[in-house]
Amino acid sequence: MTNPTASDKGSNPNNQPTPTSDEYQNPDYQATDTAASVGGGSFSPFGAAVAAATNSQKIDISRIVWKGSPNHWVGRDNQKVVAICNHIMQGTMESTNGWFKNRRSEVSAHFGVAKDGRIWQWVRVPDAAWGNGIPENPDTSLDWLVDGLKGQVNPNNLTVSIEHEGNTGEAFTEQQFQSTLWLHKYLITTYKIVPDRKHIIGHYQVSARSRANCPGKGFPWQRLMNELAGYQSPAPEPVPVAGPVSSNTNPVNSLVDMKWIQGVPGVIISDLGTRTVNTNNAYVRTKPSLSGTDGTLLRVLPKSKTLRFTGYTEAGPAFRGSMRWLLISDLDGGGWIHGSMVG
Fold first, then answer.
1. Do 209 and 274 fall into the same domain?
2. Are 138 and 149 in contact (CB under 8 A)?
3. Of the candidates 184, 212, 247, which is a domain's last residue?
4. What pLDDT sits at residue 223?
């Protein structure tokens, strides 16, 4: 980041404007309704979600904490992610979070990696963060960047930005390195990014004048690229973070809406195919719950309804002797349903 300014946004008239509210991104936003147990009652449907999940890799993403930023463009102007751009925060995770949540800053990144290994996310990967907006003496060896600039494509539309806690020149902690390595591998796998120095870059390669020290000499380029050499799918499962996970999100598989995973432990993203509801009035919730008063009810499904599923957890509240809850694809409205409700 290195003292970001509005120049990190750049111009992009073809992107959809940033919404006045980013509730659609906010995993804390839930329906306010009441329900009881997992189904079999009589309640009207409520709520729906967007997007779809297709990733067949089993990856626990519960270590990622969604923070959210209003500073982004919706979509990528019909462009696809081709590179990862690394930054240094020149500060702490907390100060950066405050800056990214400030609309007036007009700056953001998709992810941040802390010295203690935490990973936060501010912008959905399908959307363009404001981190690499205006090129200044860009690296002309980056063909994708040169071609994009010729076509007047804002670099933000082609990159995923990763901020790193600390200051220019500071060495990474081992926890920080392992977390950014995992995140790089996950992004490479999901978006088929080539794991070389033409596609894993620093901000200085886009803006050589004002961002010459971003991410700086302390960034572990050699070790990172050695670890990524020849890396291909599938992505590895990350080492679980010690202690309770307060929230999580989908940092890289952009086709799963992170709001369904907020606060749900042990989520595994996996294409489970289609299944059929086996009982009348099966409850779909914003998160696994048996409560009738916590406002998690989304809608009620009839028997024989066919659904697509994109994930699961074995750590939900137990019902009928099972703690398994299934995540419904957003193609079918999204939400959680207990495993016993489908066959």
1. no
2. yes
3. 247
4. 97
Contact 89, 163 (CB under 8 A): yes
First-to-final CA distance of the chain:
49
Are 154 and 283 within one domain? no
Q: Which of 247, 275, 309 is the last residue of a domain?
A: 247
How high is the pLDDT of residue 248?
35
Helix, strand, or coil here: 177? helix
Give yes or no: residues 219 and 93 share one domain: yes
Spatial contact of 4 and 210, defined as CB atoms under 8 Å apart: no
- Please identify which residue in the block is written with the tokens 């297709």: 54
**Residue 284: CB partners within 8 Å, gap ≥ 6?**
297, 298, 299, 300, 301, 328, 333, 335, 336, 337
What b/e readout covers 134-157, taking b as 16+ CB neighbours within 10 angstroms?
bbeebbeebebbeebbeeebbbbb
- Residues in the chain predicted with pLDDT less than 70, given as ranges, are 1-61, 232-258
- Count CB atoms within 10 A of the CB of residue 232: 10
Q: Partners of 16 in the beta sheet?
A: 74
Q: What is the 3-state secondary structure (H, E, C) of 106-168?
A: CCCCCEEECCCCCEEECCCCCCEECCCCCCECCCCCCHHHHHHHHCCCCHHHCEEEEEECECC
- One domain, residues 219 and 320: no
The C-alpha atoms of residue 187 and residue 241 are separated, in whole angstroms, by 19
CA gap 169, 216 in Å, rounded: 6
Whether residue 195 is found in the same domain as residue 90: yes
The pLDDT score that the predictor gives to residue 269 is: 75
**Closest of 112, 54, 60, 83 to residue 266, by C-alpha:** 60
* DSSP 8-state assignment for residue 185: H
SS3 category, 298: strand
CA distance 257 to 56: 16
pTM: 0.61
**Cα–Cα dist 93/162, whole Å:** 12
DSSP string, 217-259: TTS-HHHHHHHHTT--SSPPPPPPPSS-------SS-TTS-GG
Write the burial class of residue 107 (CB in 10 Å: 0-12 exposed, 13-18 middle, 19+ buried): buried
